[in-house]
Amino acid sequence: MTGSITAILLAGARPIADPLATAAGVPVKPLVPVGGEPMINRPARALLDHPAIGQVIVLTQRPDVFAADPATAWLADHPRVRFETGGQGIASSLLALLERDDLPFPILLTTADHVLLDRTMLDQFVAEAGGADIAVAMVERATLLARYPDSRRTWLKFRDGWWSGANIFWFGSKKARPVIALWQEVEQDRKKGWKILAAFGPFALLGALLRVLTLRGGMARIGRKFGLTARLVAMDSPEACIDADKPADVTLIEAILRG
């Protein structure tokens, strides 16, 4: 699979001003300094350094600000990086990209605030997601709290544990398009797990409310509903679900980087 994966790095801006960007005095959140450099640099390097990744597409509403900043201008000049201008929604921007023929599958999608993304995480995710039409990286609460007991995340409870997203997604084939379209419909409610589950039907919602579904079983059911292979990748690295979303996250990430 050397160089065969297309990576999409989400570097967009919210419709309202991001508090981290405002506090740092930068136009978009991915330019916020974390560990001495703009946060986008670390996940970008992790993707480019991984042998399975070919091209890296930076999806943003403001490609101009990255070329203009001396600390991120290297991205605009890199032969394997290209910038694409996205809209306000992740799913709608992704669907627009998929309408074109120059975005080959498989696609690995991650975010510019995934500062701790590294080779180990990518190795595991690529190995376990390979062959699936869609895969989602998650971290179980016990994995995170064993190492970072004070870290606060958004958790979804299932019969097989409490899970938090790790901001790494896999789209293995064009069969993923209907799932992305559904994601587009519920995108504004992605932090509200029950609304996402409700979109997959009343039995999935009821199963989650009664905690009779495991997350793995729920993913398999989603796959059957859409006629595809859907897979959970339970990440071994607790750092996989620590993104730079709040000042406390940045403090923790910088402490981990120093360590």
UniProtKB/TrEMBL annotation:
Transmembrane segments: 194-215
UniProt superkingdom: Bacteria
The MobA-like NTP transferase domain, residue ranges: 28-141
Keywords in alphabetical order: Magnesium, Membrane, Transmembrane, Transmembrane helix
InterPro entries: MobA-like_NTP_Trfase, Nucleotide-diphossugar_trans
Family annotation (Pfam families): NTP_transf_3 (PF12804)
Protein name in the entry: MobA-like NTP transferase domain-containing protein
Source organism: Sphingomonas bisphenolicum
